[in-house]
Structure formats: C-alpha cells, structure tokens
Design a protein that fits this description.
The chain is built from no helices and 4 strands. It has a two-stranded antiparallel ribbon.
Length: about 80
C-alpha cells in the first residue's frame, strides 16, 4: 500500500464514513493520499459579483455597487454550457 503526504484523502471519492478508505480498508487522516486518489466532484456554490460573468463588463446591472460579497438578481455563471 502506497500512502503518502500530498493530495488530501478528505478530497478523495474513496473516503467513506469514519475517515476510512474503501480501497485500502484502513483509517486515514486528512494528511494522506495514495495512487488510487480520485478527486471528489463538488459543486461550487459561491454566487457573488466576482463570480459573475457580467462583473466589470458592459452588461453589469450595478457597475457602481458591484463588489466581492455582493449579489444581485442579474448574476450569471462564468462557465455556462448550454
């Protein structure tokens, strides 16, 4: 078993309840990773002006007030695929 410091097991899809690795069958900590490391897919839920595709652009609805931590009803994702 090749467990080493690096990418954290807490971000691995193989981590199950109780900080146990379902691949190796051992208890791990947030300081370890291994060759079976698979990054968890996670949604980023942080809508604010700086994550808006309109921020500091010509279609920004509130250019004088737009700032980090602010949010209006015109927010649009930066990387949208339709």
């Amino acid at each position: 078993m090749s467990i080493r410091l690096g990418n954290s097991c807490t971000n691995c899809e193989n981590l199950v309840d109780g900080m146990n690795c379902k691949i190796h069958g051992v208890q791990v900590s947030d300081s370890y990773t291994c060759d079976s490391f698979e990054m968890k897919a996670a949604l980023k839920n942080d809508p604010n002006c700086t994550t808006c595709s309109r921020y500091e652009g010509p279609t920004c609805a509130n250019p004088q007030k737009a700032a980090l931590g602010m949010l209006c009803s015109h927010w649009a994702p930066q990387n949208a695929i339709a």
